[in-house]
Amino acid sequence: MGELRLMKGNEVIAEAAIRCGCDGYFGYPITPQSEVMETLMEREPWNETGMVVLQAESEIASINMLYGAAGSGKKVMTSSSSPGISLMAEGISYIAGSELPCVIVNVQRGGPGLGTIQPSQADYFQSVKGGGHGDYKMIVLAPASVQEMNDFVDLGFELAFKYRNPALILTDGAIGQMMEKVELSDYKPRMTDEEIDEKYGSWSTNGKKPNRERNIITSLEMQSDKMEAKNKRFQQKYAKMEVEEVRYEAIECDDADYIFVAFGSSARICQKSVELARAKGIKVGLLRPITLYPFPKKVIGEMAKHVKGFLSVEMSAGQMVEDVQLAVGCSCSDAKVEYFGRMGGIIPSPSEVVEALEQKLIGG
Amino acid sequence: MDVKDIIKPENLVYEKTKVLTKTTMHYCPGCSHGVAHRLIAEVIDNLDIQDKAIAVAPVGCSVFAYNYIDIDWQEAAHGRAPAVATGIARTNPDKVVMCYQGDGDLASIGTAEIMHACNRGEDIVVIFINNGIYGMTGGQMAPTTLVGQVTSTTPCGRDTALNGYPLKITELIAQLPGTSYVTRQAVHTPAAIRKTRKAITKAYENAMAKKGTAFVEIVSTCNMGWKMPPVEANAWMEENMFPFYPLGDMKNSEKGAVEECYKQN
């Protein structure tokens, strides 16, 4: 059993980064995630593991510092909240286009614009459909507890390095700010340049060794045919992720007539809604996508053959519901797909969700 | 005399720098980039740091700098090279990182990144090619375009009422405590080239000695953008650019300069 602590989600992100052997963190303050950098600065990991922590002048600079450090083969991370992630979109596109591994944490707040500092899930499209320019995907992990905030940092790095692709931890102000019991991971040593070269291949810009050609990290390709070939390779990589990396949790789905589809904070609410609905005699289950990209479309398609309907519960105007509709539609099922959600930083109550289920699916 | 009698080490006056690749450069005839690249390669060779030197390429004509200098490179988004260099330098303190930027990249879209990297005193080398114009996109006004200078977006000449004033960013950077060495050079004559080589050498030495940011501006020609033959472009640069962007060292501090500057200010 690892060390047990009572910690905030944001603090755990920082602690997990140090413990998993992260080489560097670059960030810029923004509510509701500033505790990530504050915790790191207080912990002074440069004395303990040699991890670098730097407050950048902007999110644009943070993501580009991340791009540089990731290009040199280092295990690096940044965190921000919605408006800051929008500023990072250019850099994320470069990182994906240069096939570099890194972990980005988005502790979402309500939008659009400056929006609000309360929790939201309205960056779903931005996270899973791209966000920046060009055809690219990020691996998107959606923690629903402080424990998963801990676990997904290491998992994020593992997947990022496996695919040489940015991984995004998509969470929100509620999970970032709430305190829960967490079992911290054991310390892993930081990797040396040689270990990185050996494990992942010698592609990084850590100084040209006499025994190899120079390494160039770039997303630029002037010839269209080469650029298309590169894009095709990216698409093959994303297709592989869709086969190998789908993660989800199914709660009380076996006998269910209706399924809530919800991630992160919404999934926590829906867990209670399942209890309330079942007490009323409604057979409902919860499908919680853990990877938002790749999306668990197959399992939804399978479920669609046996259930009457899905309610996509989101803290947004209804974004994930489009992916649920697509999954259900592709399975040629008659199951209904509806959305319920709140916006602007309002968290739906469990009973509101049950009411929506009754009105939109059962009564409708 | 047989050619073998001539090709002897003792007769050698000039050779291709080892650290320069064999790739033919894409730069226009008369462009200053080629000379600047050659000097950087030569300095890396002379200091014997090919395995330690990492560089960041900008957006602009020199986006392909990585094709010509035989070291590890990373290509940055427009203006972001100093942030990319910061990320590499901070996580690889045993290496020496250089970022190579043009005036549009460094003094317009990337003003925040360069000012803050220099202000933090990142131990990096910055090579700043200032030719007063956007070369790659076809000769538009740059932040450093002189008053009255004709470009494709200032067809009647740069008008201060409309476009503001040319930015002496190197003078601003020299004020920052994080910089150890700030200089402005050129590569239009053999004498100027020798001075610039010395400046780049010093910049690398400073960065390796962790003295803070070392910044070398090279006032350059863009004869295609300026729509002039190379020789005329050199003369135009001397006549018009040098009075506004005078050559020479602006700051040359010794070790510990970062702290000393804070005390002074």
- What percent of the residues of chain A sit in helical stretches (DSSP H or I)? 40-55%
Number of helices of chain A: 14
Gyration radius over CA of chain A = 21 Å
Largest interface: A-B, 40 and 31 residues
Number of strands of chain A: 15
Q: At the third CATH level, what is the topology name of chain B? A: Rossmann fold
Report strand % of chain B: 15-25%
Number of domains of chain A: 2
What class would the helix/strand composition of chain B place it in?
Answer: alpha/beta
The share of residues in extended strands of chain A comes to 15-25%
CATH third-tier fold name of the largest domain in chain A: Rossmann fold
Q: What order do the helices and strands come in, and which of them pair?
A:
The complex is a heterodimer of chains A (364) and B (265).
Chain A: E1 4-8, H1 9-19, E2 24-27, H2 35-43, H3 45-48, E3 52-55, H4 59-71, E4 76-80, H5 82-97, E5 102-108, H6 124-128, E6 139-141, H7 146-163, E7 166-172, H8 173-177, E8 179-183, H9 193-200, E9 216-217, H10 224-244, E10 248-251, E11 258-261, H11 264-279, E12 284-289, E13 291-293, H12 297-304, E14 309-314, H13 320-330, E15 336-341, H14 350-362
Parallel strand pairs in A: 2-3, 2-4, 4-5, 5-7, 6-7, 11-12, 11-14, 14-15
Antiparallel strand pairs in A: 1-8, 6-13, 10-12
Chain B: H1 3-6, H2 33-46, E1 53-57, E2 72-75, H3 81-91, E3 96-102, H4 103-109, H5 111-120, E4 124-130, E5 133-134, E6 140-141, H6 160-163, H7 169-174, E7 179-186, H8 190-208, E8 213-219, H9 223-226, H10 230-244, E9 248-252, H11 257-264
Parallel strand pairs in B: 1-2, 1-3, 3-4, 4-8, 7-8
Antiparallel strand pairs in B: 5-6, 7-9
